[in-house]
Amino acid sequence: MNVQTAVTLPHPIIILGRDDNGKAHASFFPATDAQPASRAASLMGMLALPADNEAVRSLLPKLPKGKLFDSGKAFVPFVKQDLYQQIAAHLPEADRAKAEEVRAAPTDVSQQGHSATPTNVPDGWGKIVVGSLVLATEDPLEGWFEATVVELKPDNVLRLQWRHYLDLPPFNRRLEDVALLHPSMKL
Length: 187
Prior knowledge:
Order of helices and strands: EEHEHEEHHEEEEE
Strand content: 15-25%
Largest sheet: 5 strands, antiparallel
Radius of gyration: 19 Å
C-alpha cells in the first residue's frame, strides 16, 4: 500500500494591528520565522496573515521586515493607512473588525519606571533628561521611531524605551545615535 502524506511548508507571514493611538503597524517575517512570528502576534494582540497566495505575497515587497525579540514579541513598524487596508482586506472576515481595533496600552507602565506620555521634547542635545522624547532606530533602513529616555548612563549613553512599543525591553543608544524632534512637537 502506497500512502503519501502531504507536506505543508511554512509561508512568509505578515503581522498587523493598530497601536494604542490607532496607528497602523505591519511587517513581514520570512517563512523560517512563521511560527515564532505568529506567537508574537498573539502575545502583542495583533493578527498574523500567512502569505499563502499570490495576492498576499505581492504585498510583501511593500512591507518592512519585522524583527523578533528574545522576549517572544516582535518589532512591527508603522505602515501607511492605504497599505494597511490592502493587507487587512485579505484577512478572514472574522478578523477584519479586529484589525481596526485600537490596542490597549499595557496597564503596568508605571511599574516600568517611566510614563506612557513623555513630558519633554528637548530643543537641544544638552537638554535631554529622563522623560525626554527622542527618535531612535534599529536600522536606518527601517525608519526612526519615538523613544523615551528612561536613564542617563555614563559616557553619553541613553537607556531608551520605545514610545509605542512599551511591551518591548528598554535598550541603549549613544547620544550621537539618536535624533531630536522639532521643538514645535512639544507636548
